[in-house]
Amino acid sequence: METLKKVLTLAVALAVVSSGYLCTVNGAAESITKKAPSISEFNIYVPKELNERQKDLVEIGRYTANGDLGSLRETIISAIERGTLTPQEVSIAIRQLYSAAGLKQMNAALAAFEQLREERPEFGVDYDKLVPKRVGLSALLGNPTNSNNVAAKIKLDEATAAVKYNTFRIKKPKPQNRNRSRLGKLDRELVAAAALGTRVGKTNAVFASSKKSLTELGLSPQQIEYLENMLAN
């Protein structure tokens, strides 16, 4: 019995020594808890695409650079109506593209935007006076007894009102950028990168430098790839 105990003790000792030797050889001498990733590492969210505001800025830079003024107008209209950009932000975005897109393209884009603002006063001087368009039952609340008289009254009101009614079906959305007088550094770099990528190509060293700046400003590699895919379409 005593001999059996000695044999078992020796076997256990050999097992412990062997496991320690293997851990040292394999470089696993540190405790498992030290190598386990923290919970915060599992909770890191990496965006894979650009948000709606950033997409609109990319389109403005892209269409300004390639001279597609029709698509530029559509992008501007959509961005202002959805509230991703204000008219002032659109103007600033275009004006800073004199180098990235070229002076001629920038002036053409500005002229197209100014023409749009003349056609749509709510994109210009009346931007802060926007009101929802009266449609459906809301237009009949004034006098429900006679629909013909109500329709005539609405036309008269709209013709004589000091504030012009816009074409929105909903109230003017609140702009995403609280400081509406300027664009942030990332916004400016993004719209310029879109213009550069369109003008000189995605393989150009200048565009590569712009991508590096975007990465330093916080865009993920997936978002950079998304930007390149937008410029390729």
TrEMBL record:
Domain of life: Bacteria
InterPro entries: AhpD-like
The protein's name in its UniProt record: Carboxymuconolactone decarboxylase family protein
Organism, scientific name: Veillonella tobetsuensis
